[in-house]
C-alpha cells in the first residue's frame, strides 16, 4: 500500500461570446501558479491557461493516471467548477465533437486504452486476457440513475469489511473496442439531464460518473487484476440569483449545492490535519458516498478545477480555487487490486460461516437444554410406570435377567403366558434354518437350541397379577406389562444367541427385529398412558414438544401406534409437528438477530450500514413466517404463541429499521451534535451578514454605486449560508425523525426542549430564509408582495401546527406580532 495526495490541475477556459474580455488572472510562465487580482497566489500540480489544448491536458495530467490504472490501481478524475467553466468540455463526457482536436479526456482515454491492450496482446501472446466494462451513472436531485439502463432501479452502494466501496446493481456494458466505449458515452450523455440556464445554454443539471473497469486475467497464475477509472463531471456550483433559476431549476440548484456542500465538507475533514483519523461525513450525500473511495480511499485522484477567465465570475473562481486548494491536502492509500475477486469471495465466505457458526452454537445450546428437560421427564415417567405396574428398575431388570438366564437352560415356555414378540419369531425361524436338531417343546411355543451353551427357554413365569392369568379377552395394563417384561427377557436371549453365532446373523434383520420391538414398546406406553386418561395427553404434548426442537438434522416424525390412531389425525399431527419445528427455528433465528443488532448498536465502532443487511435478513425470515401464519393453526395453541412471539420480535425490528433505536447510536448522536454546532455557527454568521447587508442597502439607497459589488457579495454569501442551513436543518430533521409519516411529532420533540431565545432564533430563521428566497426570485423593488405572501403562508403553516404543539412558548411565540420591514427583514418582537 502506498500513500499519495490528491493532485489538482487548474484549467482556465477561453472567453466565450457574451463575456467581456477583462482579465484578472495572471499566469506565471512555466510555473504551476496563478495570481488572482494581483494579490492572491495559488499553486497547483498543473495550471492550464486558456491556450492549452485538450491533448496537452491529457498527456500531462491524465496519462500518468492511465499508467497507474493499467498496473491495477484505481483512478478518479473529478471535474469541479462553476456552471459553464468547461468541466464537460474538458472531460469530453458530452461526446459530440466532430473535430478530434476538441476530444476531451474520456475519448482520448478510450483510444489510449485499446491501443495499450492491442500492444499487450501482441507482446504477451495470449498469456493475459483483457476485459473492459463501462458504466454511466447520473446523480440527479439525490437519485442515482443508470444512464445505460434507465429502467434499472436496483443500484446500491456497498462497503466491504476493509472499507472498499462498490456499487452493486449497476448495468455494466462489455466493451470490445474504442468505438464501443464512445457509443456508451454518447448513449449516456444523451440520457443525461441538461437544461439551458442564463449562464450556460447546455448546462449539466446533475453529477455524472462514467466508469471504466479493466480486468486483466493472468491465466498461468489464475489471478485477476481489476482496476476502475471513474470520470466524474460534477454539476456546476451556481447561485440561484445569478442563473435566474426558478421552479424545478431552483430545486435542482439546491440539491446540486447540497451535494457539493457535502463534498466540500468531506474535503475539509480529510484535509484538516487536526481531524485526521476522525469521523468523515461521507454519508451526508449520495455523491460523497459514491466517491468515498476516491477521497481518502483506494484511488489515485485528480481534481480538475475549471474556472472562467471573466471578471464577472471572479467570486466563483475564487471559491473554486479555495475548494481545490483544500483538496490538495487529502491523502489516499492506494493498492493494486490483485486477485480482488477471490479474496472478496473468501472474506464473504468467512463472514457467512462465522454467522452460521454463531447461530448453530445457539441452537445446540437450546437443544441441550431441551434434551435435559426431556431426560428429566423421561425419568419421572419411568418412575411413575414402575410405581404403577411394578416394572423393575434397569438395575433390577438386569439382575432379573441374569437370574432368569440361569434358570432358562433346558426349560420350556408356557404358551399362554409368554407372548411371541417379533424377535422371538425371528429366533424361531433362525433356529429352524440353522439348527435342525431343535426340539419343539409344544405347539406355538418358542424353540430352544439343543446346544448346551445356548440359553434355554425359561420356565413359565407366574402371573404378575391375578387378572393377567385369568382374563384373555380384555387386555389389561398388567397383561401388557407382563408381555413387556417377557419381551425384554427374550430380546436379551436373542442378542446372546446372535453374539454367539455372529457369522450366521443378518444384521439388517436384527435391526428390523429391534425396530418392531421398539414399536411394540411404544404401543405399550401409549396404551398405559391412554388408560391413565390425562397422562396420554401429556405424552402426546411432550412428543410434540420434543419434535419442535430446532432441527440440526432432518426432523423425526412422531411415531404413534398406527392401529390405535385415526389416520387423519396422524397426518394432521405430522403436519403440525413439522410446521411447529419450522416456526420454532425461525423465531429463534430472529431472536438471535435482534440480540445481535442490539449489541452492535451499542458498539460505536460498528457503522450503521453494517447493521442493515442483518436486519434485512431478519425481515426475510419474518416474511416467510408470516406466510405460514395463514395456515390453519386452530389445532395448535403452542404454534399461535410462537407466531405471536415472532410478531413481537418483528415489531422490535421495525423499530430498529425505522431508526428509532439507531438514533441513539453513538455515531448518530455525534453527528447530530456536530450538525447542531454547525447550524448555530452558521446562524451567527448569517445574522452578522444580514446586519452588514442592512448597512449596505442603506448606503445603496444613497446612490453609492461602489457598494453594489459589496451588496452582491453579501447576497451571494447569504444565499450560500441559507442553503447550508437549509441542508443541515433537513439532515437534523431526517436523523431525529422517527419515521417519515411522523415528522410533525418529531418536530415538536425537537422544539420542545429548546429555550425561548433559541425558539425565536429558529423561527425567525425559517421566516428569514423564506424572505431571502423571495428576494432571490424577485427584483429588489418588487419583492414586497410576493415575499409577504410567502411569509404569511409560512405563518399559517406554523399556526396549523400550534394545536399539536403542547408548548406554551411556541404558542405564545406564534401570537407575537411580527413586522415585515421594507428592506426584506422581519422583526419579531415580544412586545405588542
Ligand atoms: N478549454 C476550452 N476551449 C474552448 N471552449 C471551451 C473550453 N472550455 C469550455 N468551453 C466552452 O464553454 C462552454 C461551457 O462549457 P461546459 O459546458 O463544458 O461547462 P460546464 O462546466 O460543464 O458547465 P455545466 O456545469 O453547466 O454543465 C461550452 O460551450 C464549451 O464548448
Give an overview in words.
InterPro entries: Kinesin-like_fam, Kinesin_motor_CS, Kinesin_motor_dom, Kinesin_motor_dom_sf, P-loop_NTPase. This protein has 832 residues and is α+β, with helices and mostly antiparallel strands. The chain is 55% helix and 12% strand. The chain has 24 helices and 20 strands. Strands 2, 6, 7, 8, 9, 12, 15, 16 and 17 form a nine-stranded mixed β-sheet that branches. Strands 3-4-5 form a three-stranded antiparallel β-sheet, with helices on one face. A two-stranded antiparallel sheet has the order 1-18. Helix 17 (608-629) packs antiparallel against helix 18. The protein is elongated and about 120 Å long. It binds adenosine-5'-triphosphate. Residues 13-14, 16, 81, 83-89, 200, 202-204, 235-236, 306 line the site of adenosine-5'-triphosphate.
Keywords:
832 residues; alpha+beta; nine-stranded mixed sheet; three-stranded antiparallel sheet; 24 helices; 20 strands; disordered C terminus; binds adenosine-5'-triphosphate
Amino acid at each position: 500500500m502506498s500513500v499519495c495526495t490528491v493532485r489538482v490541475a487548474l484549467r482556465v477556459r477561453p472567453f466565450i461570446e457574451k463575456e467581456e474580455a477583462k482579465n484578472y488572472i495572471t499566469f506565471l510562465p512555466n510555473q504551476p501558479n496563478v495570481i488572482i487580482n494581483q494579490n492572491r497566489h495559488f499553486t497547483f500540480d498543473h495550471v492550464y491557461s486558456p491556450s492549452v489544448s485538450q491533448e496537452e491536458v491529457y498527456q500531462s495530467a491524465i496519462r500518468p493516471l492511465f499508467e497507474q490504472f493499467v498496473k491495477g490501481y484505481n483512478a478518479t478524475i473529478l471535474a469541479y467548477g462553476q456552471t459553464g467553466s468547461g468541466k464537460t468540455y474538458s472531460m469530453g463526457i458530452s461526446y459530440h465533437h466532430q473535430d478530434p482536436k476538441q476530444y476531451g479526456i474520456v475519448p482520448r482515454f478510450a483510444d489510449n486504452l485499446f491501443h495499450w491492450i492491442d500492444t499487450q496482446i501482441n507482446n504477451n501472446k495470449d498469456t493475459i486476457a483483457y476485459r473492459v466494462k463501462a458504466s454511466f451513472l447520473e446523480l440527479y436531485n439525490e437519485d442515482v440513475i443508470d444512464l445505460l439502463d434507465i429502467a434499472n432501479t436496483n443500484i446500491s452502494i456497498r462497503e466491504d469489511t476493509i472499507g472498499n466501496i462498490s456499487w452493486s446493481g449497476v448495468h455494466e456494458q462489455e466493451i470490445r473496442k474504442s468505438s464501443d466505449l464512445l457509443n456508451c458515452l454518447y448513449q449516456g450523455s444523451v440520457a443525461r439531464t441538461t437544461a439551458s440556464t442564463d449562464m450556460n445554454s447546455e448546462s449539466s443539471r446533475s453529477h455524472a460518473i462514467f466508469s471504466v473497469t479493466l480486468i486483466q486475467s493472468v491465466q498461468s497464475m489464475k489471478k485477476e487484476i481489476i482496476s476502475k477509472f471513474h470520470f466524474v463531471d460534477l454539476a456546476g456550483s451556481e447561485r440561484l440569483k445569478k442563473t435566474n433559476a426558478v421552479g424545478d431549476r431552483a430545486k435542482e440548484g439546491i440539491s446540486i449545492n447540497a451535494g457539493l456542500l457535502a463534498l466540500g465538507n468531506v474535503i475539509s475533514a480529510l484535509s484538516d490535519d487536526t481531524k485526521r483519523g476522525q469521523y468523515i461525513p461521507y454519508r451526508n450525500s449520495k455523491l460523497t458516498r459514491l466517491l468515498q473511495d476516491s477521497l481518502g480511499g483506494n484511488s489515485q485522484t485528480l481534481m480538475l478545477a475549471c474556472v472562467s477567465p471573466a471578471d464577472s465570475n471572479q467570486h466563483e473562481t475564487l471559491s473554486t480555487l479555495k475548494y481545490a486548494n483544500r483538496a490538495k491536502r487529502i491523502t489516499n492509500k492506494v493498492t493494486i487490486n490483485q486477485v480482488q475477486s477471490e479474496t472478496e469471495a473468501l472474506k464473504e465466505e468467512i463472514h457467512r460461516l462465522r454467522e452460521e457458526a454463531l447461530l448453530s452454537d445457539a441452537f445446540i445450546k437450546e437443544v441441550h437444554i431441551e434434551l435435559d428437560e426431556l431426560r428429566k421427564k423421561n425419568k419421572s415417567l419411568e418412575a411413575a410406570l414402575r410405581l404403577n405396574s411394578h416394572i423393575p428398575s434397569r438395575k433390577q431388570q438386569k439382575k432379573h435377567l441374569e437370574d432368569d438366564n440361569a434358570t432358562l437352560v433346558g426349560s420350556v415356555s408356557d404358551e399362554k403366558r409368554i407372548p411371541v414378540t417379533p424377535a422371538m419369531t425371528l429366533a424361531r425361524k433362525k433356529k429352524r434354518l440353522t439348527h435342525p436338531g431343535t426340539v419343539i417343546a409344544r405347539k406355538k411355543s418358542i424353540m430352544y437350541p439343543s446346544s448346551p451353551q445356548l440359553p434355554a427357554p425359561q420356565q413359565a413365569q407366574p402371573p404378575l397379577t391375578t387378572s393377567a392369568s385369568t382374563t384373555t379377552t380384555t387386555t389389561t395394563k398388567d397383561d401388557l406389562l407382563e408381555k413387556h417384561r417377557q419381551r425384554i427377557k427374550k430380546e436379551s436371549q436373542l442378542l446372546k444367541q446372535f453374539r454367539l453365532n455372529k457369522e450366521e446373523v443378518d444384521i439388517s434383520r436384527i435391526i428390523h427385529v429391534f425396530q418392531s420391538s421398539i414399536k411394540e414398546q411404544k404401543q405399550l406406553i401409549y396404551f398405559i398412558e391412554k388408560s391413565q386418561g390425562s397422562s396420554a395427553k401429556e405424552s402426546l404434548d411432550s412428543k410434540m414438544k420434543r419434535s419442535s426442537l430446532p432441527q440440526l438434522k432432518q426432523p423425526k416424525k412422531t411415531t404413534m401406534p398406527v392401529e390405535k390412531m385415526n389416520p387423519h389425525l396422524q397426518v394432521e399431527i405430522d403436519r403440525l409437528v413439522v410446521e411447529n419445528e419450522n416456526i420454532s427455528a425461525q423465531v429463534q433465528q430472529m431472536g438471535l438477530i435482534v440480540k445481535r443488532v442490539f449489541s452492535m448498536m451499542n458498539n460505536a465502532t460498528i457503522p450503521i450500514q453494517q447493521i442493515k443487511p442483518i436486519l434485512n435478513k431478519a425481515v426475510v425470515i419474518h416474511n416467510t413466517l408470516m406466510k405460514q401464519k395463514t395456515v390453519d393453526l386452530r389445532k395448535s395453541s403452542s404454534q399461535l404463541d410462537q407466531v405471536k412471539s415472532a410478531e413481537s420480535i418483528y415489531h422490535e425490528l421495525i423499530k430498529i429499521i425505522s431508526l428509532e433505536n439507531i438514533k441513539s447510536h453513538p455515531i448518530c448522536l455525534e453527528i447530530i451534535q456536530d450538525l447542531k454546532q454547525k447550524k448555530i455557527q452558521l446562524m451567527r454568521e448569517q445574522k452578522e451578514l444580514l446586519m452588514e447587508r442592512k448597512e449596505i442597502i442603506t448606503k445603496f439607497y444613497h446612490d453609492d454605486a461602489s457598494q453594489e459589488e459589496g451588496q452582491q457579495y453579501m447576497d451571494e454569501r447569504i444565499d450560500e449560508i441559507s442553503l447550508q442551513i437549509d441542508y443541515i436543518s433537513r439532515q437534523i430533521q431526517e436523523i431525529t425523525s422517527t419515521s417519515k409519516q411522523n415528522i410533525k411529532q418529531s418536530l415538536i420533540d425537537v422544539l420542545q426542549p429548546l429555550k425561548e431565545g433559541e425558539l425565536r432564533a429558529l423561527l425567525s430563521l425559517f421566516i428569514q430564509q423564506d424572505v431571502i428566497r423571495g428576494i432571490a426570485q424577485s427584483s429588489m423593488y418588487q419583492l414586497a408582495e410576493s415575499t409577504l405572501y410567502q411569509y404569511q403562508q409560512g405563518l399559517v403553516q406554523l399556526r396549523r401546527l400550534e394545536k399539536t404543539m403542547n408548548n406554551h412558548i411556541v404558542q405564545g411565540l406564534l401570537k407575537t406580532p411580527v413586522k415585515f420591514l421594507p428592506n426584506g427583514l422581519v422583526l419579531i418582537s415580544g412586545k405588542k
